[in-house]
């Protein structure tokens, strides 16, 4: 599948949970440096939406029975497996960024990070 596939329960457990992501009980655990600042999955989805990702509706029968969270599929026109050059087009959708293309202006963004080069 093209896009971003997210295992909701694994994502929440390892990247959104405060404290140690490897089974710590939270007492005295240091925050995971790789974790997102958000602590709710809905906040992460909102950030995806602000960067131009949209959820792809799941097909009937595609989830396992009893799977409450399951896999979620998100898609962006600028996120393709064999097109890393398109990543530079992913920008946060602010009011100003939405108005610039309509006015014939280029949407500016930060320089690529060392991970994008």
UniProtKB/TrEMBL annotation:
Top-level division of the source organism's lineage: Eukaryota
Main location: nucleus
Source taxonomy: Eukaryota, Metazoa, Chordata, Craniata, Vertebrata
Record localization: Nucleus
Name of this protein: HSF5 protein
Family: Belongs to the HSF family.
GO cellular component: nucleus
Residues covered by the HSF-type DNA-binding domain: 33-92
InterPro entries: HSF_DNA-bd (IPR000232), WH-like_DNA-bd_sf (IPR036388), WH_DNA-bd_sf (IPR036390)
Region Disordered, annotated ranges: 16-36, 98-117
Coiled-coil ranges from the UniProt annotation: none
Gene3D superfamilies: Winged helix-like DNA-binding domain superfamily/Winged helix DNA-binding domain (1.10.10.10)
Keyword set, alphabetical order: DNA-binding, Nucleus
Molecular function GO labels: DNA-binding transcription factor activity; sequence-specific DNA binding
């Amino acid at each position: 599948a093209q896009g971003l596939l997210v295992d909701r329960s694994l994502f929440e457990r390892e990247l959104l949970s405060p404290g140690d992501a490897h089974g710590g009980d939270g007492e005295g655990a240091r925050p995971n440096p790789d974790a997102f600042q958000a602590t709710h999955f809905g906040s992460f989805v909102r950030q995806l939406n602000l960067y131009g990702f949209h959820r792809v509706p799941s097909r009937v029968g595609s989830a396992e029975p009893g799977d409450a969270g399951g896999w979620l599929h998100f898609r962006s026109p600028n996120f393709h497996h064999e097109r890393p050059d398109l990543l530079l087009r992913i920008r946060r959708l602010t009011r100003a960024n939405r108005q610039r293309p309509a006015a014939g202006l280029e949407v500016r963004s930060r320089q690529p990070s060392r991970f994008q080069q």
